[in-house]
Amino acid sequence: MNAMRRSTSVVAVLALAALAVPPAGGSTHSGAVPVVSGHVVVPTTPTAVAVSPDGGQLYVVSQGNDPEPLHSITVIDARTLEVTSTVTTCLGPVDVVAAGSTLLVACTGGQALLVMDAATMTVLRSVGLGADPKGVVVSPSGDKAYVLASGSRSPKVLPALIVVDIGKGKVVDRVRVGVISQAVALSPSGKRAYVSNWGSDSITVINTGVRKVAATLDLGSIMPGALAVNPDGSRLLVNRENAGVSNPRILTVNTKSLDVVGGFRPGMKIDGMAYNGTLTQILGGYYRVGTLLLVAGEVDYEDTFAIIDLLTQRVLTSVPLGAPCRGAGVFTDLAIAPDERRAYVLGECLGHPGTLTAVDLPK
Question: Is 170 left (phi over 0), alpha (psi -120 to 50) or beta?
């Protein structure tokens, strides 16, 4: 399949099919807001957090620093927020995904994807990637992993989305993506993968069925970073990379036409984001699936978890995270529990131990 390239120069007013709706008559849910429920200290340079499918366990990968464990996985009881174990892992872990009874850990050291037994925390298979991984997503069926790789020190190895058969533990394909790729997201059906290319100012759209590039969306000097796909797969949110940008912008892409149909400035620095996936009750109103954006960012230099109303394009409510070393580090990951009752925000604290913050979400 030949890739087609689309470009856009005009950003229209944000238009979403799903709108906020008022609460039912007699409802008294006013004042429902997110609440910080606890913090967990994790080793220095944490890079990613994953939640087990049943929501009971959290897994944080960190690159560590003496005298802490170097290159580790911290296992946390999600109910009590207590660390239950710390396991040494590969060099340079950059991402972790909980997939069924296994954990997938992407490693820059050795350029590998580890397939681990989540119960015993032992390595079942190590899949050589031949490139430095940056992020991992798993197909809805759980049999394929899509590893975003930035290439390697060899000029012959180009940036790619690497397709891995998890059961067989082998690479089955590589799909070329753009320069300095930053993030990968899957559609809910798993039929499409989206890759943000910071260095190419573009989004690569991949048909996962035939494992080929279906389109490349040219964003024009946007420097795309974090991505989020709404629950019905009709919209892709693209966050402009924060580096050097005082007032970042979020673009909304129609995934059917591959046109940019909206854009707004949230008024805050954003490092991670995810759509709400269920009907949410907040501040006296009910919001349909996909109308709220959950983000980790900064408001007036305060590390914050916020909920953005995509209809009004404004921060609906926010809560300071209250983590140590506030404003001196960066968020490295944001994960949502399967029941969407909690969010977990992972922060790096510039050479000091990192912090995982649990935020109870309004329902």
Answer: beta
d(CA 86, CA 70): 10
Which candidate, 4, 9, 18, 13, places its Cα nearest to that of 252? 13
Q: What is the pLDDT of residue 3?
A: 41
Contact 290, 280 (CB under 8 A): no
Q: Which two tokens stand for residue 212?
A: 């080929």
- The DSSP code for 3 is -
Which amino acid is located at 345 in the chain? V
| Residue 204 and residue 197 in contact, taking contact as beta carbons nearer than 8 Å | yes
DSSP 266: -
266-to-100, 239, 250, 295 alpha-carbon distances in Å:
35, 10, 7, 10
pTM of the shown model: 0.87
Q: Mapped to the 3 state alphabet, what secondary structure does 185-200 carry?
A: EECCCCCEEEEEECCC
CB atoms within 10 A of CB 142: 15
pLDDT tens, residue by residue, 66-85: 777 789 999 999 999 999 99
